[in-house]
């Protein structure tokens, strides 16, 4: 990737020198969706970076009321990249959101509901403790690639239809001709072509990510039979990595669409096969040294032990940000390689926290939090993970003994000692309501954000679970 200038003046000069006609201003809402507004280069000057661009915050979900809708988007020049998907040459720049000044001489304030600002505050608080100066994150956001997707919800009907070229259900389809080599359920992990029909598509995604400054490590077909995929990229500092997750999703979706496919990061789009997770590797560093390397269990340090303790202790509330949809909990069920137990273990992929042991040297020592899924807003999820871990370190929260056994085959006696993740989003929101003081340390989250978020998510539950007939209810109850 070409290294772009990082000052506003130099960046605008770069645009004019390279005949870039548009600047696309991008930001993320509380649900993780990216928004954008496109400015002509002749309408741009350094004020966009220092003073911001005005927009209507009341039109963004979970943000402003109509009577307080004016907001400012201040461009971050260090986040710029040239968009490869637009016909007209366009520079994309991520913005931070501010409240406009209400009186002369007043300075615009950071917006407390801006997810990127929340993660900024989490990192600033982390550094202020003196414990660490860097949190590295390595998320693995899995996704599905479908060849046909249709869905609708009306008063008198509701349906979804999904198709995938390599799915088991297409073994008997008339494809003129059907050449076979479909995936059997739960057998999508690592097969060679012709069974793996998406090698070239994933490679194209990987090449595009590399060109855009997201260094890839590997890609492969995932366990689910229907086009499930994973592309891993190198770890980075938490704020940069959250930006990269958003760009990663953008690239994956647009490369898929360019090739006539639809990519989704919905955690559980299919019944009866594995869902998509966002396993997140985490380590804390200071002065270039990995603080998670030590002589405790599995080569970890005492600091890592207490970080694990914080994640597990606050797990039920933490899931409000790492697994934020009703669909998330259809993935978190036993039997589909989902980490449903709030325990830790070396190598054990059925635990919420796994300690990878097939690593080389102290620099690679880390934990892997396996419960999150790719529906998560990465800014809020990473911020909450950092705060939960820091609370564990500062209060020396002991995670207990490791679970070095198959959690799906645990004895009744063992099961009594194991805490499970909450069964649904309602229980997670209940937990967040009761356990949120750790999120407000350092002013990272505030009561306004937490109350607004819980209210928004409870309305989702009401709409999805409590108000709308489910297609399977007709199967069960129509003839009652």
TrEMBL record:
Record-listed O-AMP-tyrosine modification sites: 408
Cofactor comment text: Binds 2 Mg(2+) ions per subunit.
Protein name (record): Glutamine synthetase
Cofactor dependence: Mg(2+)
Gene3D superfamilies noted in UniProt: Glutamine synthetase, N-terminal domain (3.10.20.70), Glutamine synthetase/guanido kinase, catalytic domain (3.30.590.10)
Signal peptide range: none
Cited SUPFAM superfamilies: Glutamine synthetase, N-terminal domain, Glutamine synthetase/guanido kinase
InterPro entries hit by this protein: Gln_synt_N, Gln_synt_N_sf, Gln_synth/guanido_kin_cat_dom, Gln_synth_cat_dom, Gln_synth_gly_rich_site, Gln_synth_I
Residues binding ATP, per UniProt: 217, 281-283, 349, 363
Taxonomic lineage: Bacteria, Pseudomonadati, Spirochaetota, Spirochaetia, Leptospirales
Organism per entry: Leptonema illini DSM 21528
GO biological process, one term: nitrogen utilization
Stored Pfam families: Gln-synt_C, Gln-synt_N
A GO cellular component annotation in the UniProt record: membrane
GS beta-grasp domain ranges (all copies): 18-102
């Amino acid at each position: 990737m070409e290294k772009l200038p990082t000052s506003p003046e130099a960046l605008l000069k770069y645009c004019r020198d390279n005949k870039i006609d548009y600047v696309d201003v991008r930001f993320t809402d509380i649900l993780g969706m990216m928004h954008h507004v496109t400015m002509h280069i002749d309408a741009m000057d350094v004020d966009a970076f220092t003073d911001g661009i005005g927009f209507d915050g009341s039109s963004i979900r979970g943000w402003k009321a109509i009577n307080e809708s004016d907001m400012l988007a201040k461009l971050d020049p260090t986040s710029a990249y040239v968009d490869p998907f637009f016909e007209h040459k366009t520079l994309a720049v991520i913005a931070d959101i501010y409240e406009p000044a209400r009186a002369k001489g007043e300075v615009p304030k950071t917006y407390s509901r801006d997810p990127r600002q929340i993660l900024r505050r989490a990192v600033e608080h982390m550094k202020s403790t003196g414990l660490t100066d860097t949190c590295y994150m390595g998320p693995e956001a899995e996704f599905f690639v479908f060849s046909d997707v249709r869905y609708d919800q009306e008063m008198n009907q509701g349906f979804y239809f999904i198709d995938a070229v390599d799915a088991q259900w297409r073994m008997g389809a008339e494809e003129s001709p059907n050449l076979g080599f479909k995936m059997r359920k739960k057998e999508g992990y690592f097969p060679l072509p012709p069974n793996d029909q998406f090698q070239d598509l994933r490679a194209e995604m990987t090449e595009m990510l590399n060109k855009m400054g997201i260094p890839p490590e590997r890609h492969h077909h995932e366990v689910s039979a229907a086009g499930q995929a994973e592309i891993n990229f190198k770890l980075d500092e938490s704020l940069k990595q959250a930006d990269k997750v958003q760009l990663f999703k953008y690239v994956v979706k647009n490369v898929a669409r360019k090739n006539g496919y639809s990519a989704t990061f919905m955690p559980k789009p299919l019944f009866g096969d594995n869902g998509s997770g966002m396993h997140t590797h985490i380590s804390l560093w200071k002065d270039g040294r990995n603080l998670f390397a030590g002589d405790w269990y599995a080569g970890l340090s005492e600091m890592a032990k207490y970080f694990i303790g914080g994640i597990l202790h606050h797990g039920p509330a933490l899931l409000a940000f790492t697994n934020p949809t009703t669909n998330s909990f259809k993935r978190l069920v036993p039997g589909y390689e989902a980490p449903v137990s709030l325990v830790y273990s070396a190598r054990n992929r059925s635990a919420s926290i796994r300690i990878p042991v097939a690593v080389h040297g102290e620099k690679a020592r880390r934990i892997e939090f396996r419960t999150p899924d790719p529906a998560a807003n990465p800014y809020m999820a990473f911020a909450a993970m950092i705060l939960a871990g820091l609370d564990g370190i500062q209060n020396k929260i002991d995670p207990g003994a490791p679970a070095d056994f198959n959690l799906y085959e645990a004895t009744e006696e063992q099961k009594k000692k194991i805490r499970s993740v909450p069964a649904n989003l309602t229980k997670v929101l209940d937990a967040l309501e009761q356990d949120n003081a750790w999120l407000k340390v350092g002013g990272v989250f505030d009561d306004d954000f937490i109350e607004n978020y819980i209210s928004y998510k409870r309305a989702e539950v009401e709409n999805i679970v409590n108000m709308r007939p489910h297609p399977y209810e007709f199967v069960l109850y129509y003839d009652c």
